[in-house]
Amino acid sequence: MKVGLDGTLCEFTRGLGVYVSELLPPLDKLNGKENIEITVFVFDSPKVKELERQFSLKFVKVPKVPTPIWEHFLFPIYAKRHKCNIVWHPYNVIGMFSCIFGLKVLVTIHDIMFMEFAYGNSVKLKLGNFYRKISSFFWRFSDATISVSDKTKNDLKLHYKIDSSFIPNSGGRLVNYNKEISLLSSYGVDDCSYILHVGGVGPNKNTIRVLKAFINCESDKKLVVLGGTKQQFLDYISKENSKLIPFLSNVVFPGFVDEETLANFYNYCEFVIFPSLQEGFGLPIVEARSLKKALITSDREPMSSLAGNASILVDPESDSDLKKAIDKLILNPLEQGVIDRSYEDYLDNFSEPSIRKKIKNVLLEVGK
After folding, report:
1. How many Cβ atoms are within 10 Å of 228's Cβ, its own excluded?
2. d(CA 144, CA 71)
3. Which has the closest alpha carbon to 197: 215, 181, 172?
4. What is the β-pairing status of strands 144-147 and 104-109?
5. Per-residue pLDDT averaged across 230-237, rounded?
6. Which residues does residue 218 pair with via DSSP β-bridges, in sequence order?
7. pLDDT confidence band for 183 (50 / 70 / 90)
8. What is the mean pLDDT of residues 1-12?
9. What torsion do the CA atoms of 77, 80, 84, 87 make, to the nearest 10 degrees?
């Protein structure tokens, strides 16, 4: 069987870009085995040469075009031209031409948050939600569906009557980087006395509540906030709760960082805070777990299932819950070691060999 994967977001280091990038190592090991041949279609960028050096997969460079045109039309055309009989759409959307051409279709669904507009108030987000909602019509034509969390798996069954295979991100790519504290000095972080929050300027990331809780803890530690530029965060905070602005002296906003720097922010932090209100997956959870970091996260799905016993679960809408959890890990550093005791459980479900096996089973089933 010849599988064509839409790898056009490989150049991005967060979100869907991370998802498709983490598919490459298991696919590389499956390539050429059990009659599986993989072709990855990527936009022409400097990262392509790096990918070609790293993997034995076949990479095909394609022109950059608007996302709907690529997903619905050009990707299926390129896949058919390269004699792929299976197309893998990994970004929630199945191409119209994939169905018209009679190709076997595999799709990854990350979430169905587009059904709710509570966390998408900008015009861009509303248009994106509308596009995904319209595109979800084609999900029914998939030969197999992958969901990245149990929550998404259950939502697909409940709302669309679609069965799916749960195959998550591994988060394991960050393990490969060496520890190098000097990478963090330019951001005003030159020791390990800081807490890491992977947030954002969307309300679902809960960054405003994290800042309030951290400030109320009155700790001399620093809080490093990733997920946007400093100016984006300051504009967002000014709009949502301007009273916080004078109390941000111990808060560091590094902006967007490369993967090596990201890995080191994880490696040297005391613990990670990720109390999102809503997620399709929750990548920072598995990233923290893969690097054996203690974690504060939400007591709702999918965060609670991903975190398991290796975390403190809080009500993400409770200021007092979040403050108590932060105080607990600051005042009792031994609590931070709880992650080590459940690390083997994490490896069982989120390691690259485990994910590779699950992907192989899905591909073989689709290719029958």
Report:
1. 20
2. 17
3. 215
4. parallel
5. 94
6. none
7. confident
8. 94
9. 40
The encoded tokens of residue 298 equal: 């939400």
Give the pLDDT confidence of 325-360 residue by residue, as tens digits. Answer: 999 998 876 665 555 555 566 656 778 888 999 999
List, as one string, the DSSP characters of 269-305.
Answer: -S-EEE--S--SS-HHHHHHHHTT--EEEESSTTHHH
Query: How far is residue 311 CA from its own chain's centroid?
Result: 18
Q: What is the pLDDT of residues 192-207, one digit of tens each?
A: 789 999 999 888 899 9
Q: 102: closest CA among 78, 76, 124?
A: 76
Give the Cα separation of 73 and 79 in Å (integer): 10
Q: What is 81-150 written as a DSSP string?
A: HTT-SEEEE-SS---HHHHHTT-EEEEEE---GGG--TT--SHHHHHHHHHHHHHGGGGGG-SEEEESSH
What's the count of helices (H) and strands (E) in the chain, helices before strands? 15, 13
> Taking all residues of the chain, what is their mean pLDDT, rounded to a whole number?
89
Give first-to-last CA distance, the chain, whole Å.
9
Site of tokens 């696919």: 27
Question: Is the sign of the CA dihedral 339, 348, 3, 87 positive or negative?
Answer: negative
Q: What angle do CA 74, 80, 81 make, to 5 degrees?
A: 85
Q: Could you tell me the CA-to-CA distances from 39 to 90, 91, 282, 333 in Å, in that order?
A: 14, 17, 28, 47
Closest Cα to residue 97, out of 138, 41, 54, 39?
A: 138
Q: Report the alpha-carbon distance of residue 364 to residue 300 in Å, rounded.
A: 34
Q: Are 146 and 167 in contact (CB under 8 A)?
A: yes
**What pLDDT digit, counting tens, does each position of 168-182 carry?**
887 777 887 888 888
Three-state secondary structure call for residue 225: strand
d(CA 279, CA 151): 9
| pTM score above 0.70 | yes
- Token pair listed for 353: 């060999």
